[in-house]
Amino acid sequence: MTKRIISIILILCMVVGMVPVQVFAAEPETTWQQVQETTNPFQDVSEKDWYYDSVMYALKNGLLTGTSDTAFSPESTMTRAMFVTVLGRIAEIDLTEYGNASAFTDVAPGSFYEPYVQWATEKGITSGIGDGRFDPNGLVTREQMATMLVRFFDAYNITYPEATVTTVPKDIDSVAGWAKEAVLKLWASGLFTGDNQGNFNPGNKAKRSEAAVLFHRTDETVEKWFVETGVKTEPGNQETPS
Q1: Over the range 118-135, which residues count as b (16 or more CB within 10 Å of their CB) and which as e?
Q2: What is the pTM of this model?
């Protein structure tokens, strides 16, 4: 009986050895990519939209959510509170470090944006609109976004993308003096672009679709800076714990 069992085992080993390795291989590489893909929950955002990839990126990375479970509202505007909140998320700030009462009289205690406004204030990213007010529900303009974004980069000494745009906005003379340098810096680096006619439209209220694209480009730039400065380890290069 023992010899018979041994013979059966030997035969099984021979059969297994003849089976292609692929049969026992792990799931295809595309499976991991599929897991990483974000399902689009928004009925008002289509793959044909120029901002689709940025909206999905912002959603996947927790930067920006929808206005409801099924709507992103790409044509709606951005508030000042929401803008500094997303900047804080990109910076990955520790909210527990910003729990003091706000210096602004119109920033509601316990509001979702309170610690982000405090962070932005301490870093010099915003100083409010005067009279001790931040105006959290005020709509942010494109030139205001440019100014706060440059202050954010400068506060952390983040390296800007290499300047590749040699033109300037056709409506540069319409940009406020306090925002002109910021607009030109972001325009040259390709972080902030204009319309099809080459205008920046500085006074326009920023749309959520435009903000998503700006946040996408900014986050990728900051993530690269994180790796280059050692704040983070590049994915795939983490050390194995000993």
Answers
A1: bbbbebebbebeeeeebb
A2: 0.79
In angstroms, the Cα distances linking 86 to 66, 95, 216 are 13, 13, 11
Nearest partner of 210 among 129, 112, 114, 144, judged by Cα: 144
Which of 65, 72, 78, 77 is CA-nearest to residue 42? Answer: 72
Collect all residues with Cβ–Cβ distance below 8 Å to 4 and sequence separation of at least 6: none
10-residue stretch averages of pLDDT, the chain, 242 residues long: 45 40 31 56 97 97 95 96 97 91 89 95 94 96 96 95 92 97 96 95 96 96 91 53 32
- Look-up of token digits 């210096």: 103
Q: How many residues does the chain have?
A: 242
Q: Burial, 155: exposed, middle or buried (Cβ in 10 Å; 0-12, 13-18, 19+)?
A: middle
